[in-house]
Amino acid sequence: MSNNGEIKMNYDNKYVSHLFEVIDQMSYKDITVIEKTKNTYIHESGGDKSDVIILVKGIVISSLLGTSGNRLNLCYSKIPGIIMLKKATHSTGEYLCDIKIDSEKALFYKLDGIKFWNLVSNDEILREYVLEYMFSRINREREVLVKSIDNTKYERLYAFLYECTKLFGVKNSDDGSILIDHNITHKTIGDFCGIRNRSSVTRIMGELIKENIIKQDYRKIIVMDLDFLKIRSDILNESAGL
Questions:
Q1: Distance CA 165, CA 27 (A)
Q2: pTM for the full model?
């Protein structure tokens, strides 16, 4: 993609590194560069159903949308790679997926799906990556749906905060606390935990603050008792068979 101005980045994952090497060899007309700002969306229902969306830079949230309009967040993504993959024969069934931008800006490549799948069929490493992505996506959807059905909102919120410490956590060497270094709203927490009433999130977070398990510094969360969250996250995963 050198004729469009290359974006040179280093990727540790061999699959992701190979993906961007393949993209660099694709024709400019088969790639659209998309830049989005915070709180905007990329919708699965929009555009060509065979489009492939690649995250280049930024933080995004992948969500499932039910036919009734309810939203269930699946995961954060901040590592470059595939975030939306659709085949021309894809059936969305009961759910659609969308991508919400959760950093100030995010950069994407939209690839021509037909050309991409032709590349996949002739590239073993790319094929392995696509299979890995698809299995990971299916497992993540199953995990989120099982947790949302079989556990209380308290358990789901504890587990979510623990996952955030692994994704965004910065440890304070003085007191051992963990700063979740990303602005996370109560609505976002609710959408990740299947809690529709935002006041319920506020109440649970207030209880955690009162018990000195977390603190809040403006929009950022500081975890004071990581063991409390980890133990309850482990129990939740065990009960869900994960």
A1: 40
A2: 0.85
